[in-house]
Specification:
single chain, mainly alpha, 4 helices, about 0% strand, elongated
């Protein structure tokens, strides 16, 4: 079960890395679009995240449902916005910036909303 958890966690991280990379690569371009890295990245991250929660629920470890709920909500908004604009030739600068902000926020929740570890 631990190996499955680690594989799903790796896929979840790689999905967000692809989404983030697909956004950042367009930073200097005047026209923004939803590219394949963004589409596939959020799909992978979202599905792997759902499966990861299922594996955690099936195990002995406790699950922080508030954190999962926040990450699920933000990820779902990103997924909907990306998929709704996937076939458009270009997207507004504000939507691109919003997607970047939501992606960074979701990563920040994952990193900073964790149990306190004492040395």
């Amino acid at each position: 079960m631990e190996t499955l958890r680690l594989v799903l966690l790796m896929l979840h991280i790689l999905g967000f890395a692809a989404l983030f990379g697909g956004l950042v690569v367009q930073a200097g371009q005047p026209e923004k679009t939803v590219n394949a890295a963004m589409r596939d990245g959020i799909g992978t991250a979202f599905l792997a995240g759902l499966l990861l929660v299922g594996v955690l629920e099936a195990g002995d470890a406790g699950v922080d449902h508030a954190k999962v709920g926040v990450k699920f909500a933000v990820g779902l908004v990103i997924l909907i916005l990306v998929m709704a604009n996937a076939r458009k030739e270009r997207i507004p600068q504000g939507l691109w910036a919003g997607l970047l902000l939501l992606t960074v926020a979701n990563i920040a929740v994952a990193v900073f909303w964790s149990p306190v570890h004492r040395l």
